[in-house]
Predict the 3D structure of the following.
Amino acid sequence: MPRTDIGEISDHQSDFAPEQKRKAMLMFLDAWGEACAQGISGDLLQEVCLYLAVSDLVEERGEEEAAELMEFVPRRILAGQFTPREDNH
């Protein structure tokens, strides 16, 4: 199963509870699975989800704050924070 331990996108503290994040992640994973079952490719879903997320971030917080939040993403990718791993449950 994909990761459901969602970290912060930036170094700023989030107002969202971990359980609320986990619930949102599971809802998106369900929708993703349904889209794949209907023949939509993972590559297309990745592009659409990134576009929608960044567009919403810009709309809600403005271009400057969105850009500041996104500057942390490459470092976190390279640190493995988005790398799928097996849960040890």
